[in-house]
Amino acid sequence: MAARRSSAVELFHRATAAAAAIPREVAAATTECGSEAMLSLHITGDLTAWLPRGESLRQRAATEARLAEDAAEAAREEMVAARAAQRVVELLRARRADEVARKMSRRSQAMLDEMAARKLAR
């Protein structure tokens, strides 16, 4: 579970970095060529070519992070179910041990009663 949680955190950071890259690239293009750069993106093509790829990377990273978080949550739920099952087994074992102890106590008492009855019968 810890490995899945760690993977989810790593993928979340990757998704955050991918999302942050888009405004950084736009800002870099604007400072490189001035505010007119945003109007002439179709001429340079660099940012225009990168934006769909950057958005795709962001979406993929976000999806991977969500899937990893879902896997970590599923692992947590499995662990909770396993612990509950373990507790049930422990309770059943304790109940059986109590039943065996009661039976042994009854047998011992019955044997003592029988021995006492024999002594009285003599």
UniProtKB/TrEMBL annotation:
Residues 58-85 form a coiled coil. Keywords: Bacterial flagellum biogenesis, Bacterial flagellum protein export, Cell membrane, Cell projection, Chemotaxis, Cilium, Coiled coil, Flagellum, Membrane, Protein transport, Transport. Signal peptide: none annotated. It is found in: Cell membrane. Pfam families: FliJ. The keyword Protein transport applies. It is a peripheral membrane protein. It comes from the Bacteria. The keyword Protein transport applies. Belongs to the FliJ family. This is Flagellar FliJ protein. It comes from Pararoseomonas baculiformis.
